[in-house]
Amino acid sequence: MKYKVVNFRADRISGWLFNPDAPQVRQKLAVVVNGESATTLTCNVFRGELSGDEFPTRNVGFLGSLPPNLWTGETYQVSLQDPVSGQTFAEGALDTPDVRISAEADVAGDVRITERGEVAGWVSRAGDRTTVQVLVDGQEIFKGRANQKKLRFSGKDFDLTVPPEFAFSAQVPPEYFDDEQHFVEVRVNATETTVAQSTPRLVSAHREHAAEEAERLAASESDAFEPWRKKSSEAAAIQLEMLSVTASYAQATLTGEGLHTRVLLRVGEEVAVLHPVAEPRGNLPPRDPFAALRG
Length: 295
Fold this sequence. Notes:
Structural class: mainly beta
Radius of gyration: 24 Å
CATH class of the largest domain: Mainly Beta
Largest sheet: 5 strands, antiparallel
Order of helices and strands: EEEEEEEEEEEEEEEEEEHEEEEE
Strand order of the largest sheet: 19-20-23-22-21
Helix content: under 10%
CATH topology of the largest domain: Immunoglobulin-like
C-alpha cells in the first residue's frame, strides 16, 4: 500500500492512498473519532503531483474533515484507518473550534457579510450539507446548497476556517446599492434558523463592483464537490474509431495525431487503464503503433 497524509487537521484531512495490488479499486478510509467511525473518505481526488508513469491513475487522493457537528471546541483522538484491515495511516489529538450556531437546530457554521454586499461562509446542519437562503430586506436574493469546496471571495473579511464541501458565496444585487442601510440575513432553509445578519449601508460607489461580482458568480462553473470531474476538452485530432467493452475486457481503436501510450476508460465509478497492444490490428495505419489499445 502506497500513501501519504498531507494534512491531518479537524478542518482538512487530505492526502492520497493507492494499492498496487488492486489499482482499479477506489480505496476508502475511515475517520475514527474516540474509537468510533465518524465518516468515510473515498480516494478519488485527482493528485497532480503524482507521476503518471508510476501510477495508472492519479485519481487516488482523499479530501475531507471532521464532521462539522463535532466542531464544539473539544479535542478528539482521531485516526485514519483502512476500514477493512484496520491499518492506521495517521493518528493524533485534533483540536476543534466551537462553531455551533444553534444547538436546538443542530446548525453550525461561520458566515460573513461585508459592506460590499458579499455574503459567504460555510454552514452545516446535523453535520451534513444544507440549503441556505440570503435575504435583503426580507426578499430572497440567493438560495442554494452550501456544498462548494471553498469560498469564492478572498481577503481579510473571509479569513475563515472552512471544511471542504460546506461553503457558499453570494452577492447582494447592484440595485440595492443606493446609499441606504439594508437588512441582510442568512438562514438555514430547512429550519429558518438565522446564521448571520447585518445592516450594512450599501453605498452607490460599490454598485459597479457588485454587478461585476454578481456576474462572476453567476458565470462561474459549479464548484460542487465532484473531485474527479474536470472541464471537458475535445482533442479534434484524435478520433475514436471503435470501442468494445465486456465485464472483463475493453478495447478501443484510436486514430489521429498526438496519441498517448495509455488511455483511462471511465464507466460510471469504475476506471480501467488501457495499454497499447504489441502490434496494430485490423485496418489501422501502420504509422500509428498506439491506435489499438486493450485493458
